[in-house]
Amino acid sequence: MGITGVLGRRCDAVMRSGRVLNGQCKCGRSSLWNVGLCILRKSSSTVTNVGMETCVDPTANKTDVAVRPFHEIPGPKGLPIIGSLWEYTFLGKLDPRRFDEVLWNRYQEYGKIYKEDLGPRGTFVRIADPGDIETVYRNEGRYPHRPSFPLVRESMEAAGQELLKHRARSESSFNGQGLEWYRTRSAVNRTLLRRSGVALFHPTLNEISDDFLALLKRSLDENNTVPDITWQIRRYNTEVAGTTIFGRRPGCLEPDFSGSCQTSEMIKSIDDFFASWLKLEIGFPLTKYLLKDTWNGYMNAHRNILRIVKYHMDLDVEYEDSRPSVLGYLLSESSLSDTDAAMSAVELFVGGMQSSSHADMFQLYELARHPHVQETIRREVTEALPKGEAVTSAHLHKLPYLKAFVKETFRFHPVGLLHMRILDRDVVLSGYRVPAHTTIEIPMSVLGRLEELYPQADRFLPERWLRRGPNGFRSRMFSHVTPFGHGPRACIGRRLAEDKFYIQIAKLVQNFDLHCDEEADTVTGCFQELSPTPNIRFTPR
Ligand code: HEM
């Protein structure tokens, strides 16, 4: 199904949520098609407003369409107290390490809306209907609420108190809520979400990308594969995160890198953080007390990362003269205290490194598996920029196919499986009333596989994202593949991460032919990961 289908589905949602009265759009157009157009073009503010009003006041639905109660939403029948949590243990059939498959099977069984009671972890409503997703985002308000992680908060605050001798505020970008979240977030936005702000980091990204290519060349074995490629990619992303945030090269890509004290500590601390995070935050609420060592490891990881941030803050005398640094900008923001700036730097450092590493690995794999796609990117890059030249914003405008490749890779391999929101108002989703404060989850991996949204969904076709692509694909006016989330709470590092991908892939295809015959699968950790790591051949060009 193309755009028409999407429109039709949006209109269904409109009907269900009471935006349409007696089959007629309130703006006066009569058919569903036109109602869809009204919304898409935003030509009728009435339609949008009516939709919002209806969602805010669910009683409005009663007169028009029967709204079914929450308890009628289908879903797995769980046991008392623990819900369906047991199914994920050795007693059940579900494999939490293949959570993408669990989500797909649940979708097949229960459809586009279902609820899952996970006992002490709460009840989750999962939706895969584009109209419902739009309803959720339209109702997220000015300060969207994503569930926070209480143990991240606790350990950050404790580490902050210890190292900064100051009560560390917990309402950071990642974990905070409400007005306090907004205050920090808007300060970081000024640095990281402006195109011009991110363009300042392009020279740094070019420099590190060149060093990464040199590292790959040095590491090639006799088969042109890179032993332990995932480790090399982690070094690379730590270098990117460290340099963009602190404004100084940590040295992770140095030829004689053997894990010099601070740089290896950076990588290790982030690995420890994620390994213990999964056990602590995903487990039962009391896991912290049961897994004392894990909790101590978690605290240590936070302490180490904050210590590194503090070390750079103490060196800050010459920030103006050095390369741009996010920490430098944050420290100069009058709306943030030094503690706020330090805490934000910690979460930017942690947030960016792992997600980008997994995304890099998926991109290398898909490039290597699709020589034709790789060749098309190479042709585009060759036309846009001479080999050896630094990639600038002007070049990036000329690389639509490369960008389409990145998007298609995210459709196939969403690094973050679920996007979450908690709304402060009742909404009607797929005809069911979902009360305020319910955790609503949007499974990215399911959306990307829907044939009605992405024809030939099982084929890797970057051209589907081009405005006028071949093979009969049409421009997509609204994408459901949003790897970085959506709205004011979407990923703060999105522009930086995307530009990093574009620059590194452009340079990579100029310097290597990639090839891979092996099939790799994915596993679910904190993020989706490629596993086992496939052998990719990098033949120098
Ligand atoms: C492949 C790379 C990345 C992916 C796929 C990714 C994905 C995401 C997603 C899905 C969210 C939640 C958005 C939402 O709830 O709507 C998020 C939030 C966030 N990301 Fe990223 N991210 C990536 C890279 C980065 C980088 C490089 C940084 C830091 C420079 C970063 C920092 C953050 C922060 C701080 C948040 C919390 C924002 C908030 O709640 O206000 N991410 N990211």
UniProtKB/TrEMBL annotation:
One of its GO terms (molecular function) is heme binding. Pfam families: p450. PROSITE patterns: CYTOCHROME_P450. GO terms for biological process: vitamin D metabolic process. InterPro entries: CYP11_CYP27_families, Cyt_P450, Cyt_P450_CS, Cyt_P450_E_grp-I, Cyt_P450_sf. SUPFAM superfamilies: Cytochrome P450. Its cofactor is heme. It comes from the Eukaryota. This is Cytochrome P450 10-like. The gene is LOC118428715.
